[in-house]
Amino acid sequence: MDLLARKTFCESCGSSLEVDMPSGFCPACLLTTALDSPDVSSSGSRIEDYELLDEIARGGMGIVYRVRQRTPSRIVALKMILPVHLRSSGAVNRFRTEAEAAASLDHECILPIYAVGETDGAPFYSMKFAEGGPLSAGIENYRTKPHETAALIAKLARAIAYAHERGILHRDLKPGNILFDGAGKPYVTDFGLAKWLQRECDLTQTLAILGTPFYMAPEQAADSRAVGAGADVYSLGAILYQMLTGHPPVSGETPMEVLRRAAEQAPRRPSLTNHHVPRDLETICLKCLEKEPASRYSSALALAEDLERFCAGRTIQARPAGLTTQTWRRIRRNPAIVGLIAALLALAVSLSGIVWRDHIPRQSNGVAVLPFENLGADPENAYFADGIQQEILNRLSKIADLKVISRASTQRYQSKPRNLADIAKELGVENVLEGSVQKSGDQVRVNVQLIKARTRFQLWAETYDRSLTDVFAVEGEIAKRIAESLQGKISGHEEQSLVVKPTSNSEAYDAYLRGLAFEVRSHVPSWSCSADLVWKAIGFYERAVQLDPKFAVAWARLSRLDSFLSFNSFDPVNAARREPAKRALENAQGIERNSAEATLALGYYQYWVLRDYGRAKTTFGRLSKSLPGSSEVPTALGLISRREGNWDQSIAWFEQALALDPRNVELIITAAETYGMHRRFETALRLYDRALDIIPNDPDVMAGKASIYQAQGNLPEAASLLSEVSAETPAEETFHIKITQLRLERNYAQAIRLLQARRAQFHFKSQSEKALFPIWLAFMQRVAGDLAGAKATAEEMLENLDALSSHPPDKVVFAAALSQLYAAKGEKNPALNAAEQAIAALPNAKEGVTEPSLEQNLALIQTIFGENSRAISILTHLLQTSYGSWLYDPVPITPSLLKLDPLWDPLRNDPHFQRMLAGD
Description:
By secondary structure, this protein is α+β, with helices and mostly antiparallel strands. It has 5 domains: about 5-130, Phosphorylase Kinase, domain 1 (2-Layer Sandwich); about 135-320, Orthogonal Bundle (Transferase(Phosphotransferase), domain 1), CATH 1.10.510; about 365-500, Rossmann fold; about 520-530 and about 540-610, no CATH class; about 710-915, Alpha Horseshoe (Serine Threonine Protein Phosphatase 5, Tetratricopeptide repeat), CATH 1.25.40. It is about 55% helix and about 10% strand.
């Protein structure tokens, strides 16, 4: 008999029930019982503040209704404990405890709990009404969409990981407990409810009380009290399996038969049922469904990360079970032959000692190149040591069989540290390259040694005495010897790229190394980029190509920096670098069109100058194969995906980059900002803490963390992180976050004092930056009630911008700035027109980071001039959107910010605004 077709009978009316119905009751009787209970008003359809509309779900513990809440007015879901459980005081207490636990989980993909209450001894709780229905209703739609399926399970796995971090296991994950809202956003629901029920029950009771056996881990059936996070990983794998194949991983005619097969039989490979299933996704799915918890993913987070690797087209961590693993599983199911196998193994080992010594297992092939020590008499030659280190890294990154940690992650260590083992552990490698450089005139001595960090065993060492123009060969030889020492495979193409000699001009090469040293110190394209260092690097690259016009790598580097300066720049000097970027790129391609360096320059030109994100993504995608060890490529792909609004894909690329570059603070901050823009605030906070572990008390990192607390409405925590920010704080973003804090605290006087002091004393990086700065002062004066002061500040600023009005370097920034100034002056039509022009001036049809921020700007101006309904309509959309905000840099607008920020006070009494904040 099919399990899903089994029937039982309602204890009240005798009607037939499906097997997974609540114990003893049909839906009609449940609803009647609820409405007839003493806690229901005389109308027979209202419980306290909730009007019951209809039933939407039922399970072993309770029944869920769609209800109308009176205050605030909205449609919500309300879950009540089943009447049969009211006779048990323990059951009632546990319902309350679990409901409160579920309410404590605040994650974007966990169904929000609005209220936990009780009426006449019967506990209930209300939650968001997910009008999109459960996954179980549309699960068949995913069979031919493997990437969409993987992306969904990755989101759910991250939600489960969040719950696990807070000590809550789900234990009843199934398609029916995955709900969607009207926009298709998924939510996990019914957290913790299976946990206490399983402590009450055994395997002879109904499926609804157990949790569904189709998705239950084998160890959960054996002892539900002892299960860990691996049980939820198994359930996620079972859901994934059904989405790929159309049926659960195991079947049976009775609950006991399903559980027995889950414990004894391996599920059939999904690709045998559905040829659309990619091999990597099948491998991920089957790893989740391993019988032993230790053989599954170590956590739900590890599962999510592997799924994201799959979605991004990267190598997954899971590996298919090999012949040895499969054989061992068969042996464990047939213990009678274990003794024989053990005897044969002992004999084999005794006969193969010599052979074993000849086949030592391959060493880890990860390597970190620590900063090279400058041994020259002239301390100014330090640039040469930096350049040699970076050039060796550039070559190593082209070897696919090596994991190479970038300079950004190693630059904070000493040249010859004592704690090599600790450093290697922090960087995730086993091997470290130390080196020194001594330059005297045109002669160079390079010393290197490759060390196994844990034992400090020297794997290889060499000293090279060369002329300056022969250093190219040295760099290639070092990279090759490192790969050989670590038993890394080098293809013919890779070996050829190691020995390329880009110039024979020693002066040109010296200038190039100087430029390279300044470039790597500038942190392009990160959050802490120094424009001064970028300009110095450009000067030396220009010198290099003047000395050798055939120096392709120098042309490529020059094009990259020119492209970077032209990107999103309001400075006319920087904007003028577009044409030089194009010329430098054409020169690089004309000399070495297919080189990795020229292709990198092309990708950045497409991204930063042309804003052609699709072509740029294609270009960098090609580079991921030729530069597999470089974190630069996944970082660029992460930034481009973010610009496109592909947030999950962007995060997956940043995670890949962090795996190659784990101590790169700039990359960690970029990833943290991205998580913040994507409203994954808890992960963003962890990344900021990770950066602070590397650079403790850094004011810019602390300000980024403070912006997350502001978005969450936690002003005390944010204030503690911003206490040292002053008018002289160098980073403009950090200063703005401080001003936002004071505005949210409504401390207008201190904010205005700080803004005026900075305007008078601070040395701005450019005249355009100085010209834009008063916008913050004008808005602060306006919210403080000084309309005359705001108008005067805005008029003065408009005069400074007149010189740019005819040929603005960035039409989007210019139009947005004008809209804000007109608003500060109180001129409605010009302000609204300029705000709309800023959106229309976007170079791309869709800008995932910028466009929503410009919409937010329009909503703010509409708010100032009383166009409430239009502003609220935009804000409602933005609350469900991931983006980077100019107003709350870098986080998007949130309900907490809307509640706290005085800029939105004109909307405060509007009922539509209140309902929006209530989540209706």
